Amino acid sequence: MLPGLLQNLSNVHEYFTWLLKHNGGTFEFKGPWFTGMNFVLTSDPMNVHNICSKNFSNYPKGPEFQEAFESLGDGIFNSDHDSWGFQRKLFHTLLKDNRYKAFFEEAVKGKVEKGLIPILDHVSSLGIEVDLRDVFQRFTFDSVCLTVLGHDPNCLSIEFPNVAHSKAFNEMEENSFYRHFVPKRWWKLQRKLQIGSEKKLLRGWKVLDEFVYECISTKRKETLKKEELKMDLFTTIVMEEEEGEMNDKITKSNKFLRDTAFNLLAAGRDTVSSGLTWLFWLVATHPLVEAKILEEIKEHLLDN
């Protein structure tokens, strides 16, 4: 099966979708015996529910997953058992904080009004063709950075700027994903020699680390001054540390904040941007649905 996978690496998502469709929603991939590349793909809703919810504790990610995604550190995506449970409970508490919820709503609404809508108006008025996936990735990257780190990288603007830490995140994500589809010995050799995908991964990792740690340093200085603070997630965590609400030493470390940022960037950027892209594509290819949406907007949202 390995030659087919290598041949389709450039369109791996479409390839796996095709495999799943032709195998009833679940497919077992078997690589050569010496690669250790055996894994199961599933899109069956009952399987997904069983793995991700009903019996989640039966499916630990394990050391191989954690090694492949080592750039995520000890964050919630890479953790198992007690560590995962602790972080899940902590994030539920933080995300329900009324101060954070109010800031989140204000920040995302502002990014839509001052960033997303002006860009769409601009390209529409000039008849310019743009990649909506890129637009929405810029929107979600800015939104996650703003609501988690309190810093707006301003990727989403008419100029479509090339922002270093956004590009670094792309390199990290793409090349971490690549580790799953080549023999471990191969990517470890690349890492040792500092070549190929591993060189790109480490380069992106370094750039994003510098960016996040700088944000953490700034955030700690801001909270010490007790000035008007944006109630982003980092501010909420740091303030609760100072107020004695967090007694666990893990949450007080800069590494915890760094790992949290990396994991929330991974969780929030591509998931939402892909969903928005698919929504617009589906609406564009179903004129009757588009007409009903426009009718509902005129009826309920627009001033008469």
Tell me the strand percentage band: under 5%
**Helix segment tally:** 13
Mean pLDDT: 87
Radius of gyration over alpha carbons? 22 Å
Please state the overall shape, judged from the principal axes of the Cα atoms: globular
Structural class computed from helices and strand pairing: mainly alpha
CATH fold category name of the domain at 98-300: Cytochrome p450
Largest sheet at a glance?
2 strands, antiparallel
The low-pLDDT segments are none
Fraction of residues in helices?
A: 55-70%
Which architecture of the domain at 98-300 would the CATH scheme give at its second level? Orthogonal Bundle
Strand order, biggest sheet? 1-2
Q: Strand tally, please?
A: 2
CATH superfamily of the domain at 98-300, by name, is Cytochrome P450
Intertermini distance = 61 Å
- Please identify the top-level CATH class of the domain at 98-300: Mainly Alpha
Following the backbone from N to C, one meets helices and strands in this order, namely: HHEEHHHHHHHHHHH
Report on the architecture of this protein.
With 304 residues, this protein is mostly helical. It has 13 helices and two strands. The protein has a domain at 98-300: Orthogonal Bundle (Cytochrome p450). The protein is 67% helix and 3% strand. It has a two-stranded antiparallel ribbon. α7 (132-149) runs antiparallel to α12 (254-284) and α10 (196-225) crosses α12 (254-284). The longest helix is centred in the last third of the chain and has 31 residues, at 254-284.
